[in-house]
Records
---
Amino acid sequence: IVTQLRLCQYYIVA
Amino acid sequence: MFEARLVQSAILKKVLEAIKDLLTEATFDCSDSGIQLQAMDNAHVSLVSLNLRSDGFDKYRCDRNLSMGMNLGNMTKIMKCAGAEDTVTMKAQDNADVVAFMFESKNQEKVSDYEMKLMNLDQEHLGIPETDYSCIVKMPSQEFARICRDLSQFGESMAISCTKEGVKFSSAGDIGSANIKLAQTANVDAEEEAVVIEMQEPVSLTFACRYLNSFTKATPLSAQVQLSMSADVPLVVEYKIGELGHIRYYLAPKIED
């Protein structure tokens, strides 16, 4: 299964 | 008072083309240093980061920081009214609820004024740290657009693998598979035709073709594109906008469980 990650899994909401 | 003037309205038209595939609305943050925009697509998978420096404009004035929320579809309608050779001036009063666009033809024989209502948008800014990427690939932007288009025919995802020998783009799906390898160019006459790879460590990541194809809408802005990659972090695709600034796209990878 291929999962599309989201940006908030890498970057913090400023 | 905010005022920004560009002799070439075509640049602003191209910037808009480069972002409107991913975003329906966005906030333009104007300050003394220039115009910035940072926004994620609806799915929060990709992010557009636009930076237009004040010194790149033909005239620029921003007395107070100003955030202008704009519907990009409406802005596109207005920018379509500008001739390719027109000069564009954007203006807004402090705390205004409208932004004005003035288009002037050469010799100012025709002057057109448009006003667009601004919107209050909820902004979710991401803090993106300075990152030392394992691989940085510089290549012709048209070549990158072509590869993204070609590989999209094979599958929804494409793998980008970078070693010091070169960069490989691959995709696979129901009809078969595709592999495109680009070697670093030994010597080229024109700098913009070069493929240059700076590699600390080899990297292989998988991304959704749909987003990469949206990023390539920025191709008319720059002859070269830069791809920055590290294991397990989003890809950065950057197009320089002449002396004016840059547009960067961030894309979260796909992982296989």
---
Amino acid sequence: SHDYHFGLEDHEGISELFDCD
Amino acid sequence: PPQTPIRAAMTSIQQLRSDLLSTGDQPSTNLYSYFENCTVDPTQDVLKRLETFDQEFSQSFGQAVGPRCIVLGKQRFTLGVRLYYIVMEAMLKSEEKRLSVQNFSKLLNDSTFHTSLLACALEVVMAAYGESCFKAGGYNHGGGDSAATDVCFPWILDVFNLAAFDFYKVIESFIKAYPTLSKDIVKHLETCENLIMERIAWRTGSPLFELLKQEHDSGAAEQVETPAS
């Protein structure tokens, strides 16, 4: 199977990525 | 049976279609609840944005693939919107669990977030149908068919006037939020990610340069990290 490398930490959700935390 | 490129493409389409055919073209009750919980309800903006992008996507798809394919573009857009709603709801559920909040007003009123998420959903749909591939990549189902290469990534970024750096932000969360994506689609998104990281995000005009400047000006570059971090 293809193993995607998840690089984000648990504290980095979509809200943080768009500066909406 | 052995996996062939055709079989892989068929599996991707069938899996995605079965997921998306069972859902509606409108946000689910749960997703509407997230919209209603916002300080500023984003519902009207979300619907209006989709209406605008529907026109732009279908027209551009027709221009790239052929005038007779505008209907095909509309069909792809409809599937893309369904996926956009499904993934948005899953992302919000995950954020609710992680942050223990239900008001996502800032995120849900962020136009760039919606555009990036919709672009990613459409990229997945087009990749499932073998329409988006990479000209120099290893799985160009189109072969010599120019129609199949004209909508290759990063075509979608130009259609929505979206910065590659912003598109990059949604990829990992998208894969996490929709764990049943086929391995070929995950591989496709990973190739998009690599292209952005290695090339597209560094093109003139990329918002990345301004962010790097801000980081430098704020003194973040002066802080030395410990080896552990």
